[in-house]
Known about the structure:
Number of helices: 10
Number of domains: 3
Structural class: alpha/beta
Oligomer: single chain
Shape: globular
Strand content: 15-25%
Number of strands: 14
Amino acid sequence: xxxxxxxxxxxxxxxxxxxxxxxxxxxxxxxxxxxxxxxxxxxxxxxxxxxxxxxxxxxxxxxxxxxxxxxxxxxxxxxxxxxxxxxxxxxxxxxxxxxxxxxxxxxxxxxxxxxxxxxxxxxxxxxxxxxxxxxxxxxxxxxxxxxxxxxxxxxxxxxxxxxxxxxxxxxxxxxxxxxxxxxxxxxxxxxxxxxxxxxxxxxxxxxxxxxxxxxxxxxxxxxxxxxxxxxxxxxxxxxxxxxxxxxxxxxxxxxxxxxxxxxxxxxxxxxxxxxxxxxxxxxxxxxxxxxxxxxxxxxxxxxxxxxxxxxxxx
Length: 314
């Protein structure tokens, strides 16, 4: 169990983490750029340290500064929040090398799921249902062949990044030809990766997500189903949980898909809090997460992904 945790983020994200730490009686260490010196998370933290002047690249993304503060304060773990360093596999490895737990996925998971085409390849390998699509496309000719095979309309996607950047709906070969170089440039300019691939585009659909949280020892919970269908330019505007007006059985199917029994246990483990390679666990909360939770076991005589009724109550 940790008694002190550093939050490598700012603003509302850091405040939410601090609220949870107070409930767990864990001390929180905040970091901030001088531009955020008046932010609420600094006032709420038990300790706060400046990362100096400048933009995020010189403050919140400075791994050496953040690790130095963690060591100085005796923080046993670092929570990256979301954005900034949260999906940086090198940062997760640096934390591990320093003997500090990274509150997030393992470096291996970050690398595999950080690019859409590698995540698709893993899902396909283990029989997870997904839209028809391609691997990385070498050139426009390959994209045009793939478009005919998948069938228009298709979505041309950058393999890296997120936030709706590098996604273009193509309803014909002509539109695909016009979009190909532009999407590659967006990927290169925003994420330093120009790789692109194609997926079938579903014109009328609901965007449902299941967040999965694991303890690093094969126990996994699905944190409800979120409806992320309200979007602008392929970027989420509103997220609602629990998702409303779903067909009977859809929630259970979403949970099962999110924790497919076909995947090996190392992927089921999801969020793995590790210190020197060993799992480090927070105590179980007295209250279930908003939107309801389902607890699964991935071992101990139970099939991976099977609902464990005896462990479903918090």
